[in-house]
Design goal:
By secondary structure, the chain is an all-alpha fold. It has helices spanning about 1-25, 35-55, 65-80, 80-95, 95-120. The protein is globular.
Length: about 120
Amino acid sequence: MQDILLVSLGAVLGANLRFIIYKKLKTCKSIKYFRILIINTFSSFFLGLFISLMPQISSLNYSYTLVLFILIGFLGSLSTFSTFVYELFEMFRQLYFFRALKLLMISLSLGIIALALGLFLGN
């Protein structure tokens, strides 16, 4: 039961932070479809950073607790696959095929680069 509570608490915090960032970025009209891209890139970076710090954290008694809270709960809900897919679907529905493919490629590329940068900086 404690595991569920840790993941849930991290998820509540991550989802609320995502909502706040999403609302703040809403004022920039030119990046309408790139808000989730920015949030997911940010989350990917911290995922890489956290993973690279795992060897130091694993020596702590609370390493499993931190993984549940930060990695699964917080970062899992901060990044959002469903909103990303929905925005891609909306672009395809509105016949913005090139824009949707560009968003897909940029999202995947930036996510991998951000994850690698986080891993690199953590080591």
